[in-house]
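Appendix B, example 12.
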Amino acid sequence: MDTKHSTSNLPWIWVIETLATSTEIDTSLLIDLVKRTPEISDEMGRYARELVSLRVLETLSVQEISNANNDASVPGDKIELDRSVHCEDVLRHLLLGVSSDQKMDGPEVSKWDVQSFITKKRSCLPKCALQQLS
């Protein structure tokens, strides 16, 4: 691992982690920030990517719930997601399954129990780096 590259990204990682844990920050703003920052693909940035992915999953889940009011699906029909899988991987899987017109409310998203996965993930996440310092 390139130590210089990793340490120069550290402030970005801390900012992204902190903003991703705040419910006051809109997900679209968070995504825009991530697009404008240096890539944080190393292991040091995994937690930041995990938090951003979790926020995007939460947004998808809210959209799914609002669309569920129009569906007649039974809650027990949803496929449970494994809590040990990273949010980043779940998000990638869901988005790859979404139709080519990029609708987030497509059938691929609605068949998974995303809300339950989010709740379980939130309950076991450690504090972000800046919160641990205080």
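Residues 3-133 form one domain. Confidence is low (pLDDT under 50) at residues 99-107.
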